[in-house]
Amino acid sequence: MKKIKIALPWQILIAMALGIIFALTCTSWVKYVSWAGDIFLRLLKMVVIPVIFTSMIVGVASVGKSADLGRIAGKTLAFFVITTLIATFIGLGLVNLIAPGEGAQIVDANETAQQLMNAEKVSLGQQLINIVPENIFKDMVNSNLLSIIFFAIMFGFFVTQAEEKSRTTILDFFQALFEVIMKIIMNVIKLAPIGVFAIVSKMVAQQAGDMARLAGMAQSLGLFLVVVWAGCLIHFFIVMPAIVYFLAHENPYKHMKKMSTAILTAFSTCSSGAALPISMKDSQEKCGISNKIASFVLPLGATIDMNGTALYECAAVIFIAQAYGVDMSFMQQLIVVVTVLFSAIGAASIPMAGLVMLTIALNVAGLPLEGIGIVLAVEQLCDMPRTATNTYGEQSAAVVIAKSEGEKLTISD
């Protein structure tokens, strides 16, 4: 699973470059390969609901119910939710301030914007009410993702309240189901280079007659890259150190230095899973965090803590909306924030989690999935800072939780 995540970005970059060349040199032939992109997007949509439902149930139900574990789990979950929420608002603020997508000039953007403007308007209060499903099976058929997420979280929580035998049986069933879905996803992701080639070819071919459009798109992607890197740097060097300093009363930069090997591993491999063993080793040996805290907080963080990815996803959705000329209201943007926050609970364990999360968020926002083809051009460059940010978020959580449990750390030694 991790090997796929590490290897694929380079294959995708090659596929993207070939797609651009093919679209510019053989524009009339693009229509004969565009079907591959359509199938890839349909395959992504196919696995969205199953992976949300199974991963969130397993993630929530796996927390446990003992008093000691429950207390630590409660603190950990609260930390991850709050820091991820902060990260999404940083991304939201920067993408609205810089507005990188406004110069993208996507073909058919006006038509897409008009369709969304003509869609039935639902008040925020009604949207919040609609999150609670009347019929979960109907919501699955209609792809009402927020309702599915709500039901999955509630179901996973009450699994922990069931008797031991029932809890084990249900958890084993959904764990097995999740593993099957993961096998499907892994094989769908293997098709990503082909799908990206077709999607990028189609998108570039639509713009090929107007070089000004292509230049505008390139400029917009550059600005989007600035938004993601700036957001991750703010969260990494300002927000998380402030949390470590004020909540754990430890020197955040000494902590960062001691955990630098794991952080650099995450940055270079774009895999928080690859950095996890190093994080667990260094947090105990260099920082003095107990095995009880490190072995619970860090693996859980690798599953549900996605500060950098949530920042990226939120910025990417608004960027795509801007590129298509869709003016999203503040309330609509809040719905995107909530979607990204909830979907982060189980998505970190998915290969190319950012791609799956972006599919979910675009579905909820009602934006074209073809918009994924725009941000795929800078996916690898965005993946490095956001993965490092994810990893440092997990490490900071371990420090804060350890200090809240009365542990004496060796960060300043």
Describe this entry's structure for a reader.
The chain has 19 helices and no strands. It has helices at residues 2-25, 34-61, 67-98, 109-118, 124-130, 136-141, 145-159, 164-190, 192-207, 211-248, 252-258, 260-269, 272-285, 291-304, 307-323, 330-347, 353-365, 372-375, 379-404. With 413 residues, it is mostly helical.
The helix-and-strand class reads mainly alpha
Q: Roughly what percent helix?
A: over 70%
Shape designation: globular
What is the straight-line distance between the termini? 38 Å
Low-confidence stretches: 1-7, 109-120
Rg, Cα atoms, Å = 21 Å
What amount of the residues lies in strands? under 5%
| Tally of helical runs | 19
Q: How many β-strand stretches? A: 0
Quick one: biggest sheet? none
Spell the H/E element sequence.
HHHHHHHHHHHHHHHHHHH
Overall pLDDT confidence: 80
Please provide a brief summary of the model.
This protein is mainly α and 413 residues long. The chain is built from 19 helices and no strands. The protein is globular.
Note the main attributes of this structure.
19 helices, disordered N terminus, 413 residues, 0% strand, mainly alpha
Task: Present the secondary structure layout.
Elements: H1 2-25, H2 34-61, H3 67-98, H4 109-118, H5 124-130, H6 136-141, H7 145-159, H8 164-190, H9 192-207, H10 211-248, H11 252-258, H12 260-269, H13 272-285, H14 291-304, H15 307-323, H16 330-347, H17 353-365, H18 372-375, H19 379-404
